[in-house]
Automatic annotation (TrEMBL):
InterPro entries: ACP-like_sf (IPR036736), PP-bd_ACP (IPR009081). This is Acyl carrier protein. It comes from the Bacteria. Residues 5-80 form the Carrier domain. Pfam families: PP-binding.
Length: 84
């Protein structure tokens, strides 16, 4: 899981699987809270899912700053490539 495209595909699959979203609703520009209706409990589930997939945890403070799917992709990208 190195490229942003790879991360986006894994994130899209997670959002579809965890929150029963239609894949076409999940775009890089989609707002997690407004467009995808993710709430704070869902966000915790998503952070946990990312941790299981990557072996690394996104800090809660960093996740509070994300608004769009692309923000999550960038946060995960920085996380997985910081250790590389």
């Amino acid at each position: 899981m190195q490229t942003r495209e790879d991360i986006f595909e894994i994130l899209r699959e997670a959002l579809v699987e965890l929150f029963e979203l239609e894949p076409e609703r999940v775009s890089l520009q989609a707002n997690l809270y407004q467009d995808l209706e993710i709430d704070s409990i869902d966000a915790v589930d998503l952070i946990d899912h990312i941790k299981r997939k990557t072996g690394k945890k996104i800090a809660a403070e960093e996740f509070k700053a994300v608004r769009t799917v692309n923000d999550v992709v960038e946060a995960v990208y920085r996380l997985v490539n910081a250790a590389a």
